[in-house]
Protein backbone atom coordinates (compact mmCIF):
# COMPACT_ATOMS: atom_id res chain seq x y z
CA UNK A 1 0.00 0.00 0.00
CA UNK A 2 1.33 3.42 -0.85
CA UNK A 3 1.83 5.81 2.02
CA UNK A 4 -0.62 8.39 0.63
CA UNK A 5 -3.36 5.80 0.22
CA UNK A 6 -2.78 4.51 3.77
CA UNK A 7 -3.13 8.02 5.19
CA UNK A 8 -6.37 8.54 3.29
CA UNK A 9 -7.79 5.22 4.47
CA UNK A 10 -6.71 5.82 8.06
CA UNK A 11 -8.22 9.29 7.92
CA UNK A 12 -11.48 7.85 6.64
CA UNK A 13 -11.52 5.27 9.42
CA UNK A 14 -10.86 7.91 12.06
CA UNK A 15 -13.67 10.06 10.64
CA UNK A 16 -16.04 7.09 10.74
CA UNK A 17 -15.13 6.44 14.38
CA UNK A 18 -15.90 10.04 15.33
CA UNK A 19 -19.25 9.90 13.53
CA UNK A 20 -20.19 6.57 15.14
CA UNK A 21 -19.16 7.71 18.64
CA UNK A 22 -21.38 10.79 18.28
CA UNK A 23 -24.24 8.50 17.35
CA UNK A 24 -23.63 6.30 20.38
CA UNK A 25 -23.71 9.18 22.83
CA UNK A 26 -26.46 11.38 21.36
CA UNK A 27 -29.58 11.07 23.49
CA UNK A 28 -32.55 9.26 22.06
CA UNK A 29 -36.04 10.14 23.23
CA UNK A 30 -37.58 7.17 24.98
CA UNK A 31 -41.18 7.32 23.86
CA UNK A 32 -42.10 4.41 26.13
CA UNK A 33 -41.37 6.30 29.37
CA UNK A 34 -44.10 6.19 32.01
CA UNK A 35 -45.41 9.75 32.22
CA UNK A 36 -48.03 9.11 34.91
CA UNK A 37 -47.96 11.99 37.44
CA UNK A 38 -46.01 11.03 40.58
CA UNK A 39 -47.51 11.25 44.05
CA UNK A 40 -44.23 12.40 45.60
CA UNK A 41 -44.99 14.97 48.32
CA UNK A 42 -43.57 18.49 48.41
CA UNK A 43 -41.61 17.53 51.53
CA UNK A 44 -39.98 14.68 49.60
CA UNK A 45 -39.09 17.01 46.70
CA UNK A 46 -37.63 19.40 49.27
CA UNK A 47 -35.08 16.70 50.14
CA UNK A 48 -34.06 16.25 46.49
CA UNK A 49 -33.79 19.80 45.14
CA UNK A 50 -32.12 22.99 46.40
CA UNK A 51 -34.11 25.73 48.18
CA UNK A 52 -33.88 27.97 45.09
CA UNK A 53 -35.00 25.15 42.79
CA UNK A 54 -37.89 24.31 45.12
CA UNK A 55 -39.10 27.93 45.07
CA UNK A 56 -39.36 27.85 41.24
CA UNK A 57 -40.62 24.30 40.82
CA UNK A 58 -43.13 23.89 43.63
CA UNK A 59 -43.90 27.46 44.63
CA UNK A 60 -44.40 28.81 41.07
CA UNK A 61 -41.42 31.14 41.49
CA UNK A 62 -39.63 33.15 38.80
CA UNK A 63 -35.87 33.62 38.79
CA UNK A 64 -34.20 36.97 37.99
CA UNK A 65 -33.56 37.44 34.24
CA UNK A 66 -29.97 36.82 33.05
CA UNK A 67 -29.26 34.85 36.23
CA UNK A 68 -29.10 31.38 34.66
CA UNK A 69 -25.90 29.84 33.25
CA UNK A 70 -28.20 27.88 30.91
CA UNK A 71 -28.79 31.08 28.91
CA UNK A 72 -25.34 30.73 27.33
CA UNK A 73 -25.53 27.05 26.46
CA UNK A 74 -25.26 26.37 22.75
CA UNK A 75 -23.97 22.76 22.84
CA UNK A 76 -26.02 19.80 21.71
CA UNK A 77 -27.81 17.93 24.45
CA UNK A 78 -30.99 17.60 26.45
CA UNK A 79 -32.61 19.79 29.11
CA UNK A 80 -34.17 17.66 31.86
CA UNK A 81 -36.55 18.65 34.68
CA UNK A 82 -34.44 19.66 37.70
CA UNK A 83 -36.76 17.73 40.04
CA UNK A 84 -37.58 14.37 38.41
CA UNK A 85 -35.00 14.44 35.55
CA UNK A 86 -37.60 13.86 32.83
CA UNK A 87 -36.15 15.13 29.51
CA UNK A 88 -38.27 18.18 28.54
CA UNK A 89 -36.39 20.01 25.76
CA UNK A 90 -33.81 19.18 23.10
CA UNK A 91 -31.05 21.71 22.44
CA UNK A 92 -32.11 22.00 18.77
CA UNK A 93 -35.27 23.86 19.91
CA UNK A 94 -33.41 26.41 22.10
CA UNK A 95 -32.96 29.92 20.74
CA UNK A 96 -31.77 33.32 21.93
CA UNK A 97 -34.92 35.30 22.74
CA UNK A 98 -33.12 38.25 24.32
CA UNK A 99 -35.38 38.03 27.39
CA UNK A 100 -32.74 36.78 29.82
CA UNK A 101 -34.42 33.42 30.34
CA UNK A 102 -33.62 30.16 28.53
CA UNK A 103 -36.11 29.99 25.66
CA UNK A 104 -37.33 27.16 23.47
CA UNK A 105 -39.83 27.01 20.62
CA UNK A 106 -41.05 23.49 21.40
CA UNK A 107 -40.88 20.93 24.21
CA UNK A 108 -40.43 17.19 23.66
CA UNK A 109 -43.87 15.88 22.70
CA UNK A 110 -46.08 15.02 25.69
CA UNK A 111 -43.55 16.11 28.35
CA UNK A 112 -45.17 19.34 29.56
CA UNK A 113 -48.73 20.23 30.46
CA UNK A 114 -50.27 23.68 30.75
CA UNK A 115 -52.67 25.58 32.98
CA UNK A 116 -54.11 29.07 32.98
CA UNK A 117 -52.22 31.39 35.34
CA UNK A 118 -54.22 34.35 36.63
CA UNK A 119 -51.69 35.55 39.21
CA UNK A 120 -50.91 38.73 37.22
CA UNK A 121 -53.39 41.23 35.77
CA UNK A 122 -53.24 39.58 32.33
CA UNK A 123 -53.79 35.82 31.96
CA UNK A 124 -50.77 33.72 31.08
CA UNK A 125 -50.28 30.09 30.09
CA UNK A 126 -48.18 28.30 32.66
CA UNK A 127 -46.45 25.00 31.79
CA UNK A 128 -45.02 22.29 34.00
CA UNK A 129 -43.36 18.87 33.85
CA UNK A 130 -46.06 16.21 33.33
CA UNK A 131 -44.35 13.75 35.65
CA UNK A 132 -43.58 15.75 38.84
CA UNK A 133 -45.81 18.76 37.98
CA UNK A 134 -42.89 21.06 38.76
CA UNK A 135 -43.42 24.57 37.37
CA UNK A 136 -41.10 25.40 34.45
CA UNK A 137 -42.27 28.70 32.95
CA UNK A 138 -44.82 30.42 30.71
CA UNK A 139 -45.68 30.20 27.01
CA UNK A 140 -45.82 33.34 24.85
CA UNK A 141 -46.84 33.72 21.22
CA UNK A 142 -43.80 35.65 20.02
CA UNK A 143 -41.49 32.71 19.28
CA UNK A 144 -39.79 31.72 16.03
CA UNK A 145 -40.94 29.28 13.34
CA UNK A 146 -42.02 26.55 13.15
CA UNK A 147 -44.31 26.94 16.20
CA UNK A 148 -44.33 30.72 16.76
CA UNK A 149 -44.22 29.94 20.48
CA UNK A 150 -41.74 30.94 23.17
CA UNK A 151 -41.39 28.58 26.10
CA UNK A 152 -39.85 30.98 28.60
CA UNK A 153 -38.18 28.69 31.12
CA UNK A 154 -36.62 29.20 34.52
CA UNK A 155 -33.05 27.95 34.27
CA UNK A 156 -33.25 26.65 37.86
CA UNK A 157 -36.05 24.29 36.83
CA UNK A 158 -33.86 22.55 34.23
CA UNK A 159 -30.53 20.76 34.10
CA UNK A 160 -28.50 20.54 30.89
CA UNK A 161 -27.04 17.16 29.96
CA UNK A 162 -24.62 17.40 27.01
CA UNK A 163 -24.84 14.70 24.34
CA UNK A 164 -21.57 13.07 25.46
CA UNK A 165 -22.94 12.36 28.97
CA UNK A 166 -25.67 9.79 29.67
CA UNK A 167 -29.10 11.00 30.74
CA UNK A 168 -29.70 10.57 34.51
CA UNK A 169 -32.15 7.96 35.78
CA UNK A 170 -35.59 9.39 36.47
CA UNK A 171 -36.20 10.09 40.18
CA UNK A 172 -39.09 10.77 42.51
ZN1 LIG B 1 -40.33 16.76 36.55
Topology overview:
Layout: H1 3-25, H2 42-48, H3 51-59, E1 77-81, E2 87-90, E3 94-95, E4 103-104, E5 112-117, E6 124-129, E7 135-140, E8 150-153, E9 158-162
Antiparallel strand pairs: 1-2, 1-9, 3-4, 4-8, 5-6, 6-7, 7-8
The structure holds zinc ion.
Domain count: 1
Radius of gyration equals 19 Å
Based on secondary structure, the structural category is alpha+beta
Shape designation: globular
Discrete helix count:
3
Provide the helix percentage.
Answer: 10-25%
Question: How do the strands of the widest beta sheet line up side by side?
Answer: 3-4-8-7-6-5
Q: CATH topology, what is it called?
A: Metal Binding Protein, Guanine Nucleotide Exchange Factor, Chain A
Give the low-confidence spans: none
Strand tally is: 9
In N-to-C order, the SSE pattern is: HHHEEEEEEEEE
The ligands found in this model are:
zinc ion
CATH class descriptor name: Mainly Beta
Textual characterization of the structure:
With 172 residues, the chain is α+β, with helices and mostly antiparallel strands. The protein has a single domain (29-162), classed as Peptide methionine sulfoxide reductase (Metal Binding Protein, Guanine Nucleotide Exchange Factor, Chain A, Beta Complex), CATH 2.170.150. It has three helices and nine strands; from the N terminus they run αααβββββββββ. It has helices at residues 3-25, 42-48, 51-59, and strands at residues 77-81, 87-90, 94-95, 103-104, 112-117, 124-129, 135-140, 150-153, 158-162. The chain has a six-stranded antiparallel β-sheet. A three-stranded antiparallel β-sheet has the order 2-1-9, with no helix packed on it. The model has no long low-confidence stretch (mean pLDDT 90). Residues 81, 83-84, 86, 129, 131-132, 134 line the site of zinc ion (ZN).
